[in-house]
From TrEMBL:
Pfam families: Abhydrolase_2
Statement: the UniProt record of this protein carries the keyword Hydrolase: yes
E.C. numbers: 3.2.1.8
Protein name: Endo-1,4-beta-xylanase Z
Highest classification ranks of the organism: Bacteria, Pseudomonadati, Pseudomonadota, Alphaproteobacteria, Caulobacterales
Source species of the chain: Terricaulis silvestris
Occurrences of domain Phospholipase/carboxylesterase/thioesterase (ranges): 167-218
Amino acid sequence: MRAALAAALLCAACASHTPTIGMSAQHFEGQVRRAVQYEYLLYLPPSYTESDEAWPLVIFLHGSGESGADLGMVRAHGPPRLITEGRDFPFIMVAPQAPEMRPWDIDALDLLLDDIMRTHRVDPDRVYLTGLSNGGKGAWSWAIARADRFAALAPVAGYGDANRVCALGQLPVWSFHGALDDVVPAAFDTATVEALQRCNGNVRYTLYEDANHDSWTRTYANDELYTWLLSQRRAQR
């Protein structure tokens, strides 16, 4: 039974993973409780093919407005938008698209991450998770459930389960929110951060006093975020 379950969790069918420099559309299928699939954007750094080195990986989860069946919508915000506009980053970036009207599926995301790490040169101690709005909430949830998989967490305009957030342990967290947010009130995020602080979590909190729900444009444009992310290593904890 255990062997059968393990086999069921393997990738059932995947698109070709021949490295393509730049950002490309990819497809993933797997089996966990039910058949799952994700369309996703994959970015490889310009020098990815020049050596055999392992690279950091940043996973970006979009907001509810970008869910559905049009992968181009995922380019609207965050790192995918910056890459589309011509920016190069020193890491692999994966940005899956959630099906419309469905929450992020943690088990399915785990399978996707497994597949990316199997097919690409990813440093397992430098896997970073970020997301905005509903993706920020999804990032909190995924990290709480699987804290051992990540080197750092950077949720934007989201919030986590304050009753479970201590499961993050010493995972480095930098959370961002707009004080004027009338979609996801900052109080939700503040409560999450304060709960993590009470259990001595490793957390930073940036509250933009003049920002509404869009606290992500300035966050992802800030080089300090990427410097902070890439300075974290899972092996240090």
